[in-house]
Design a protein that fits this description.
The structure holds two protein chains of two kinds. By secondary structure, chain A is of the alpha/beta class. Chain A contains nine helices and twelve strands. Helix content of chain A is 34%, strand content 26%. In chain A, the strands form three sheets. Chain A has a six-stranded mixed β-sheet, sandwiched between helices. In chain A, helix 6 packs parallel to helix 7. The C terminus of chain A is likely disordered. By secondary structure, chain B is mainly β. Chain B has four helices and 18 strands. In chain B, the strands form two sheets. In chain B, strands 1-4-6-8-10-12-14-16-18 form a nine-stranded parallel β-sheet. In chain B, a hairpin with a 2-residue loop joins strand 2 and strand 3. The mean pLDDT of chain B is 91. The chains are: A alpha/beta, B mainly beta. The interface between A and B is medium-sized, with 30 and 23 residues.
Chain lengths: 269, 275
């Protein structure tokens, strides 16, 4: 049985159709690179799987380990084994990082975790992520640098132990050392039952985590599903070769101009 | 009650005035329920910075607290469920530095009118209020600062959470009168609303009669940030537990302001029970 099975998924955001019939299967133990130009649906796919209420599913299905994901709430999806390392993790004032982690662990345990065990888990994970331990006593992501927020996502992944981890541009904002730490920890968390679906625009991360498969999303659909050579080709040639060889017309990302209105009018006298 | 707090012994009563002169304990309780009914004014001074828990009693009249020169410390209001209406004036004389903390997590209705008058040079106050209102209750807080002397400072921070179809109002005036040069006054009011049926109002008012002063006010009312809800739920935390954590984080800062650990722990427990 496939771990994740998506069929004919159509998803809209703010009344705009972004995913236009996505079909995708992820199996146990796969490490899948998800590529594609900006605005073609990669993050939308992740958020639709996770249940972000801003993303409206108009058609299609998502099954995870045989269960209907669309029938689950966001927290149920997480407890079922799905994890999303976010592109822009939220800063939540007033909620202490350690309290948040404790609540996440208690949510998937029959007995509440003891303070000593929680401390030891956070201490160990912080050391592995090369994060200062005192970040766990601060408010959730509040005042964290971009790199610290991304490391905090992987720290949470390590503690929660999901069965499918979706990582959305986990390398953005990281320096060379940060990318090394993150990729080391991703490699450490790989096993035969855990799958990864990873978005990045840069081959550097993929060189370090060795994906087993590459999927390219264009125009809200899966355009290419191939091996890792696809990553190298995109890194050296971009996406235009897909238009030539696959006959795909790559739609340009629409830049929406936001008008704040007019507060002054020039009049001719 | 905090075991390391002792009941303050008054020195004397004169007509409608009660005097607590030269308090030499660090942690004291003033129990208004033990006052003679004619008391209208309470005079306080201390020989060292003090923490004072005022066990508030509902009275049919206002009580004025006068903090005598150079008194410093923190006042913690304890409001019992049956205190529905309260009128108090706090008068800060020269050199007085008094901070106020009120944590109101009770299931009760309130109509609270408090005025802090800064009447002496260098008088200074910080005000913290955390209020939780649920189950169709109504809480109205009218907190005002009146700068009646130059070189005075006041900062008011009111935080509230409304659950169910309840009502919460924060209002009050910060006024700097004429000739009150270098006075500084700030007001912040923030309310999180969890229910579409709830009614919330934050109405901070500044009345400034001098140019060489600093003043600011800010008010925020709104629902819990949906991105925060989504982020926390994406880690397996239920919606109810997420809202509980966010509420606790929102209201808890007033407890961190309290030095006495035992009192702080009791208020934390009260908050957790309320949630």
């Amino acid at each position: 049985m496939a771990k994740l099975e998506i069929k004919n998924l159509h998803v809209s955001v703010a009344d705009k159709l972004i995913l236009n019939g996505v079909n995708l299967t992820i199996n146990d133990g796969e490490v899948v690179a998800l590529l594609g130009p900006n605005g073609h649906g990669k993050s939308t796919l992740f958020n639709a799987i996770m249940g972000n209420p801003n993303y409206v599913i108009s058609e299609g299905s998502i099954h995870f380990d045989g269960s209907d994901v669309l029938a689950m709430t966001v927290d149920e999806r997480s407890r079922a084994g799905l994890f999303l390392g976010m592109q822009a993790p939220s800063e939540v004032p007033g909620v202490v990082n350690a309290d948040f982690i404790r609540a996440a662990l208690n949510a998937r345990s029959e007995k509440p975790i003891s303070p000593i065990k929680l401390f030891r888990m956070i201490e160990k994970a912080s050391k592995e992520m090369q994060m200062p331990l005192d970040l766990s006593n601060r408010n959730l992501n509040e005042g964290f640098s971009g790199g610290e927020k991304k490391r905090n996502e992987i720290l949470q992944m390590k503690l929660i132990q999901p069965s499918l981890a979706m990582l959305d541009e986990i390398d953005s904002g990281l320096d060379v050392d940060g990318i090394k730490v993150i990729s080391d920890q991703i490699n450490k968390e790989k096993n035969e039952e855990r799958s990864f679906l990873i978005i990045s625009h840069y081959a550097r991360l993929y060189d370090l985590i060795h994906p087993t498969r590459a999927i390219v999303m264009i125009n809200g659909e899966v355009a290419v599903d191939g091996d890792v050579s696809v990553i190298q080709r995109i890194d050296s040639e971009g996406y235009e070769w897909l238009a030539r060889e696959k006959g795909i017309k790559i739609e340009k990302e629409q830049v929406r101009v936001t008008s704040l209105g007019t507060c002054a009018i020039k009049e001719s006298i | 009650m905090a075991e390391n707090f002792k009941t303050a012994i008054f020195n004397r009563i004169e007509d409608h005035k009660i005097f607590f002169d030269g308090i030499n304990l660090k942690n004291v309780i003033i129990d208004e329920n033990a006052f003679p009914t004619k008391i209208r004014e309470v005079y306080l001074s201390a020989m060292q910075p003090i923490n004072v828990i005022i066990k508030v009693a509902e009275q049919n009249h206002s009580i004025n607290y006068i903090f005598l020169p150079d008194t410093k410390g923190k006042i913690i209001h304890l409001l019992a469920d049956n205190v529905e209406r309260l009128d108090r004036v706090y008068r800060l004389e020269e050199g007085v530095e008094i901070d106020f903390a009120t944590a109101d997590f009770n299931r009760a209705n309130r109509n609270i009118n408090l005025t802090v008058e800064l009447v002496g040079a260098k008088a200074k106050t910080n005000w913290f209020l955390s209020a939780l209102v649920d189950q169709q209750h109504s809480k109205i807080y009218d907190i005002s600062f009146l700068h009646k002397h130059a070189d005075t400072f006041a900062d008011m921070q009111n935080y509230g959470v409304i659950i169910d179809d309840s009502k919460l109002f924060f209002s009050g005036t910060s006024a700097i009168f004429e000739n009150m040069k270098h006075a500084e006054t700030h007001q912040t009011a923030k309310i999180i609303i969890f229910d579409d049926r709830a009614v919330a109002k934050a109405d901070p008012i500044l009345v400034i009669h001098h140019n060489d002063v600093k003043a600011s006010h800010a008010a925020t009312l709104g629902k819990v940030n949906s991105e925060h809800l989504y982020y926390m739920q994406s880690r397996g935390i239920s919606e109810l537990e997420t809202k509980r954590l966010i509420t606790k984080g929102y209201l808890e800062p007033v407890i961190k302001f309290i030095d006495d650990q035992e009192t702080a722990n009791k208020l934390t427990l009260a908050l957790e029970e309320a949630l």
